[in-house]
C-alpha cells in the first residue's frame, strides 16, 4: 500500500472536529504531505490548512485527495461523490479508509479507470503477502502493545518516530492501520490481511535496515482482547521487536466493546507480550509506558504516571502531555 | 461451508496412496458419506470403496464429487477437467481443497453456472464471519493444540469424536482446515479467514449446544510457530475450550518449515495455551496428550508415552496405536 504525496485533505461536511480526526492526524504528523484542505458547505472542522479547490490543489502539486472524514451511516453521499469524481477528472488519485469502498461506487470506479488514476481503499490489502519466515532482520524495531484496543498505540509510535527524527536519528513509523497508512502514505492494513499471512505482512512492512535505524511499528489490539488477540500475536512475532512500549488508558474498566471482559493489569499484559516477543527476538524488552491520561486532570495525571513509573521501574509518559523524550533517552 | 453428502471420491491418477490422503481420510472417518471411488487410468491409490463411474454414483445417490487427490505441480490437468465437467453435467456438485481453485477453471465455472451446481473450494471461506463477542456458549468443547503444525491435531480430534459417539454420547467434530472440511462436509478454513474475524469464525463454527454435548475442535498451528501463532491464538480464544489435548511428534527437532526454530517443550506449550484459554474460559484444563509415535518402533513408542504420562500426570496416548479411550474416560 503506497500513496502518492502531497495530499489535498477532504474534510467534506464534517459536523465537528472529531468526524475529521483522520485529516487532523495527517496534518499533525505529516504537514509536509498536505497542500491544503477542501471543505464543503456545512463543514465544522478545520485542520488549519489553506482552503482550496481541486484545481488550485493540483496546481500546487497535489497528487492524492485523502478522505479525512468519516462518512455518516456508512453512506458515501451524492455531494461527496460529485467532489471525488471531479478530483479524479482533474488528475488526483483518491485514498480513503471508509467502511465502504471507493471502488464500490460505480461512477468513481469508472472515472478512475478512464482517467488512469488509483482508488486506494486503505482498509483492504492491495497485494499478497508471504508466510512469515521468522528470520531475524537487521536494524532496530520498537512495537507498541497495549492493555486494550484504541488506547494510544498509533499516537505513541508516531510521537516516538517524530522525537527520534528531531534528534537527527534514522527512524520510520510503520503503519498497521488505516489512519496510520493515510498519515504516512504507506503500510499494511493488518486486520484485513488473511490469517496465514499476518506475520509475513509485518515482516514485509519492516524490512532489513541499517543497524542504527529504528522502525516504530504501530500496535494493534491486545493479547487480552478476545476478538483480536490473534492479530496482536502475529504482529508481535512479525515485528521481532527489540523494544516495546506498553500503552494504557487508566480510566477504562473493561475491554473495548466487551463489558464482560475487565482490563488486564499492566504487569500481566507486559509478561504475556514479552513471552511472545522472545520467540522471534530473545533480546526483546520493555522500555517504557505510554499512558493516555486525557480523562484525568493535571494532578491526577501526574500521580498516575508516577505510580506506573514506580510500579514498572520504567519511564511512564503521556505522549500528549509530557512527550516521549524520556523513552527515546532509553533507546539511545 | 457446507457440502451435500454422500460423495463420490475422485482419486484421479494418484501415483501412490499418499497423494490420495484426503480421500483416504474421508473413507476412514466418514465411510457413510461415500458411495464409491472414481479412478482414472494409472491410479495407484485405493480407498477400498467400490469403483464406479459418474452415472452409477449419481444413481446411488451421490450429491458431490470430492477431489480427494493432490494435483501435481498445482495444475488441474485436462484429463481431470474432462471428468469434473462430466460430473457437473450429470448433476453433482464439486468440492476440492486444491491450491488452485475449481472456480478459476473457466469450463468448470461455466458448466456449474449453467447447471446450477456448486463448486466448493474449501480453502476459501464462502461467507463473512462476525467479530468475536467472547460471550460464553453452552455445551462442552475440547480443542487440540500442539507443539508444532502438522503433528496430528486433526486425527486426534476425529478419533476423540468417534470414540465419544461410539459410547453413545452427543458429540461433533468441528473442522478448521480443508481436509477436515472435506471429511465432514462442513467447517471453517481458518487460515484463509480475514484477521479481524478469525475468533468470530470459530465462535460460529462451534455454537451453543446442549450441556452434555462435546464439540471436538480441530487445532491449527502452534503458539510457538512464528508464522502461524496468531491463528492459533484466535482459535484458542474463539473455541473457549473446557478441555485441551496437547499434540506432539516426539522425533521432530525444529518447527515445521523453520530449521532455526526448535520445538518447544510440552510443558511450556501447555502453559502458554492454558494462559490464553483462560481468558475466554477460566475453567480450561488439559485432559491428555496425543503423541504421534509413527516414527518410533513399538518399544520406543511405549517408553515415550510412559515418559510423557509421568511428566504431565495426564493420560498420554497415540491415537493410531493405542486409541484415545483413556482421554475420553477423563472427559466422562
Architecture overview:
The structure is a homodimer of 332-residue chains. By secondary structure, the first copy, chain A, is of the alpha/beta class. Chain A contains eleven helices and 13 strands. The first copy, chain A, has helices at residues 21-29, 54-59, 78-89, 106-115, 153-166, 178-184, 198-205, 229-239, 266-280, 298-312, 325-331, and strands at residues 7-12, 34-39, 64-67, 93-96, 119-121, 140-146, 171-174, 214-217, 243-248, 254-255, 258-262, 285-291, 316-317. In chain A, the strands form three sheets. The first copy, chain A, has a six-stranded parallel β-sheet, sandwiched between helices. A five-stranded parallel β-sheet of chain A has the order 2-1-3-4-5, with helices on both faces. In chain A, strands 10-11 form a two-stranded antiparallel ribbon. In chain A, helix 1 (21-29) packs across helix 6. The radius of gyration of chain A is 20 Å and the shape is globular. The model of chain A has no long low-confidence stretch (mean pLDDT 96). Chains A and B meet through helix 7, helix 8, strand 11 and helix 9 of A and helix 7, helix 8, strand 11 and helix 9 of B.
The whole-angstrom Rg of chain A is: 20 Å
- Relative strand content of chain A: 15-25%
Give a quick account of the main beta sheet of chain A: strands, pairing sense, barrel closure.
Answer: 6 strands, parallel
Major protein interface = A-B, 37 and 37 residues
Query: How many distinct helices of chain A?
Result: 11
Our measurement of the CA-to-CA distance between the termini of chain A, rounded to an integer number of angstroms, reads 31 Å
Poorly predicted segments of chain A: none
In helices, the fraction of residues of chain A equals 25-40%
The coarse overall form of chain A would be globular
Mean pLDDT of chain A: 96
Structural class call of chain A reads: alpha/beta
* Annotation, overall tally of beta strands of chain A: 13
- Largest beta sheet: strand ordering of chain A: 7-8-6-9-12-13
Return the string of H and E elements of chain A.
EHEHEHEHEEHEHHEHEEEHEHEH
Identify the quaternary structure here. Answer: homodimer
